[in-house]
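Thread amino acids onto this structure.
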C-alpha cells in the first residue's frame, strides 16, 4: 500500500462541510445511519470553497430529488485532499465517492482501496462509450480495469495579454524560440514577459514532463523503472529554468510562488504578459478584474523540430471507495455527475473541458476549442505507473531548489540538473525496493 502520495498546492488548505454531516466513515450508513445517504469529498474547483458550495449544492439537491439519496458534501482544498484520501485508504474510514486528480489514478489504483469499473459498473453509470477516449484513458494503469472515471477535463495553455504583446510588436509564439524572444522583449519597465510558480513542486514537475516530452523523453522505462537522468529530461528542465536564469524574463521572486494562483494574479494584474496554466484559470483571471477579451490562449509551443506536445490530459476523476456500504447509490451518483445535463451545468462555472464524447461537438467559443484541441491532440499522459506520485514529488522539489538557487544569483548547469535528477531517481528506486 502506497504512503508517498503528493499534495497539490493550489489553494489554502481547508475543508467546507455542506448538508450537515461530513464524517469520515467506512461508507455512508456508518456516518448517518441512513443507507440512502452518500458521503462525497469534492475537490476545490472554483475561486473559493464557498464558491464550490454555491455551485454544487443545487446540483446535489437535484440528485436527491431524482433519486431520494441524500449527499453529505465536503469540499476540500488541494493542500489537504490527497492526504485525507491516503488516510482514508490506510484507515478504512472514508467517504463513498471522492474526486481525485486524474494524475493520481494509477497510484491510488495500486492501493486496492477503490472500486473497479468493470462491465457491470460501467453499464450502471451509462457505459464507457459516453466518455471521450482521452478522458477515459486517465482512469488507471494501461491494461487494467479503471478505478476512476473522468469528471472535469483540464489542459495547459499559454495565456497571453493581447495588448502587451501588441505594444511590444510580437505575435503569440508558435515555437519555443519565439516564446523566449517575446518574453525577453516584454520584460521591461518593471514588468516581466513571464510569470511561473517556481516554488510549486507540482507545477514544476508538470513542466519538467511537458518539456521533456517535447524532446521525446521518458521518465520511466517499460518496466516502470525511473529513467530520470536522460539527456532529454535534463535539457527539457534546463529550457524551462532558463526563462528565469538565462533570459531574465521571469521575476526571481517567482521562486517563492508555491502555487499557480500567484502567477495567475501577476498575469491578471498585468505584471506579466504570459503564463502557463490550465483552462480553469479563466475563472480566477476574470475574478481579478481582467476581461475575457483582453487575453488569448495558444498551445505551449515546442522547440523547432520538437514533438508537438503542449500538455498532458489533466483533470478531475471520480472514484468509489471499495468498502462503501452503498455501492448502488454511489454508482447512481457517478452516473448523475457524468450525465450530459450535469456536465453542462458544471463545466461553465468551473471552466472545465467536456469529458463526454457528445459534449465536445457542442463547444463553440474559440478559447475552449483551443484547449480541447490541446487535450485531445497535443497531450501526452503523465507516467502511468504507481510511482508517478513520487516522480512529481522528487523531481518537482528538486526544481524548487534549482529556482531558489537561480533567484539568489547562482547558476544551475546541466550537470547540476543531472545530479539532482540522479538523487531523485535514487529516492524513487529506494522507495520501490
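Threaded sequence (433 positions):
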Amino acid at each position: 500500500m502506497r504512503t508517498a502520495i503528493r499534495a497539490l498546492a493550489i489553494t489554502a488548505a481547508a475543508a467546507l462541510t455542506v448538508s450537515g454531516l461530513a464524517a469520515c466513515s467506512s461508507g455512508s450508513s456508518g456516518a448517518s445511519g441512513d443507507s440512502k445517504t452518500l458521503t462525497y469529498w469534492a475537490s476545490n474547483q472554483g475561486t473559493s470553497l464557498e464558491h464550490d458550495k454555491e455551485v454544487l449544492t443545487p446540483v446535489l439537491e437535484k440528485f436527491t430529488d431524482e433519486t431520494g439519496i441524500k449527499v453529505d458534501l465536503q469540499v476540500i482544498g488541494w493542500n489537504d485532499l490527497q492526504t485525507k484520501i491516503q488516510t482514508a485508504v490506510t484507515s478504512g474510514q472514508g467517504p463513498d465517492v471522492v474526486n481525485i486528480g486524474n494524475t493520481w489514478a494509477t497510484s491510488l489504483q495500486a492501493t486496492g482501496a477503490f472500486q473497479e469499473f468493470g462491465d457491470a459498473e460501467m453499464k450502471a453509470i451509462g457505459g464507457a462509450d459516453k466518455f471521450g477516449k482521452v478522458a477515459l484513458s486517465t482512469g488507471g494503469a494501461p491494461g487494467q480495469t479503471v478505478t476512476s472515471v473522468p469528471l472535469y477535463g483540464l489542459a495547459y495553455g499559454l495565456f497571453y495579454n493581447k495588448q502587451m504583446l501588441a505594444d511590444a510588436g510580437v505575435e503569440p509564439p508558435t515555437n519555443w524560440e519565439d516564446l523566449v524572444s517575446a518574453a525577453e522583449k516584454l520584460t521591461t519597465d518593471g514588468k516581466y514577459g513571464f510569470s511561473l510558480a517556481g516554488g510549486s513542486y507540482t507545477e514544476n514537475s508538470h513542466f519538467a514532463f511537458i518539456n521533456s516530452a517535447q524532446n521525446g523523453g521518458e521518465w520511466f522505462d517499460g518496466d516502470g523503472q525511473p529513467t530520470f537522468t536522460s539527456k532529454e529530461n535534463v535539457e527539457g528542465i534546463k529550457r524551462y529554468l532558463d526563462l528565469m536564469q538565462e533570459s531574465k524574463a521571469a521575476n526571481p521572486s517567482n521562486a517563492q510562488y508555491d502555487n499557480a494562483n500567484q502567477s495567475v494574479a501577476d498575469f491578471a494584474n498585468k505584471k506579466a504578459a504570459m503564463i502557463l496554466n490550465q483552462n480553469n484559470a479563466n475563472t480566477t483571471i476574470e475574478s481579478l478584474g481582467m476581461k475575457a477579451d483582453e487575453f488569448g490562449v495558444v498551445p505551449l509551443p515546442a522547440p523547432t523540430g520538437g514533438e508537438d506536445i503542449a500538455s498532458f490530459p489533466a483533470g478531475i476523476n471520480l472514484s468509489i471507495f471499495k468498502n462503501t456500504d452503498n455501492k448502488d447509490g454511489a454508482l447512481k451518483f457517478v452516473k448523475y455527475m457524468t450525465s450530459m445535463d450535469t456536465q453542462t451545468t458544471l463545466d461553465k462555472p468551473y471552466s472545465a473541458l467536456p469529458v463526454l464524447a457528445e459534449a465536445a461537438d457542442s463547444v463553440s467559443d474559440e478559447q475552449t476549442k483551443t484547449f480541447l484541441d490541446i487535450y485531445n491532440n497535443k497531450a501526452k499522459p503523465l507516467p502511468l505507473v504507481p510511482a508517478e506520485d513520487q516522480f512529481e514529488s522528487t523531481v518537482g522539489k528538486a526544481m524548487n531548489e534549482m529556482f531558489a538557487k537561480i533567484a539568489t544569483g547562482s547558476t544551475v548547469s546541466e550537470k547540476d540538473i543531472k545530479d539532482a535528477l540522479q538523487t531523485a531517481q535514487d529516492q524513487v528506486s529506494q522507495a520501490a525496493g
